[in-house]
Amino acid sequence: MADNRKCPLIVIDVVCGCTVAACLVGSFWLITVRSDDASARVLQLQQAVNTTSQELAAFRGARDKQRSILARRKAELAVTGQLPELPPTEHYFQTLSDLAEQHDLKVRRHQPVTPRFYPGLLEQRYAYELSGSLPDLVRFFRSVEGSEFWADISYLKVEGGQGGRNINNGERIASLTISLFSALPAEEKADTG
């Protein structure tokens, strides 16, 4: 009877020994052979995470830049077409003088005329007199019309040529009124209202 009991214990010891040996071999295989493959996968995943993080940072930077451009464009759009509070008169007349010079015209005089008031609008008027050829005058008028500032020619009289003033042959004198527009200042609105 004692021999019968020893046999199953030996079988159990052999089976347990084989199982432990298999576990040790499997662990060794996982640690040595399989760990290189796992390390490579972990490295690839880390590189993918780093690349994705860099792309995300670039996208966020581009988004922030676009948001800033959008905010600037919205601010520009909000004031586009609005009358200035005070017209930059000196800038306007410098621009008009430059346009006259570009079109070979001479500015003979310019002087202020009585301003006009409308609801919420101030029209500052200036008498302006130019001399030059008719084609040059026409190009000047077209340039003023196409300019970006709030100015307009509200009166125009061209003299010269046959039967006109006694001036050089082919030269004309244009008398015009330049109107510069701006929003009526708040204190003047109260006075006119």
The structural class is: alpha+beta
The biggest sheet amounts to: 4 strands, antiparallel
Low-pLDDT segments: none
- CATH topology value of the largest domain: Alpha-Beta Plaits
Per CATH, which architecture of the largest domain? Answer: 2-Layer Sandwich
Q: Which strands sit side by side, in order, in the main sheet?
A: 1-2-4-3
Radius of gyration: 45 Å
CATH class of the largest domain: Alpha Beta
Number of strands: 4
Which percent range describes the beta-strand content? 25-35%
- Number of H/I helices: 4
What is the domain total for the residues? Answer: 2
Query: What is the N-to-C order of secondary-structure elements (H for helix, E for strand)?
Result: HHEEHEEH
Helix content: 55-70%
Going by CATH, what is the homologous superfamily of the largest domain? Ribosomal protein S6/Translation elongation factor EF1B
Task: Describe the structure in your own words.
- The longest helix has 78 residues.
- Helix 2 packs antiparallel against helix 3.
- This protein has 193 residues and is of the alpha+beta class.
- It has two domains: 80 residues; 104 residues, Ribosomal protein S6/Translation elongation factor EF1B (Alpha-Beta Plaits, 2-Layer Sandwich).
- The protein contains four helices and four strands.
- The model has no long low-confidence stretch (mean pLDDT 78).
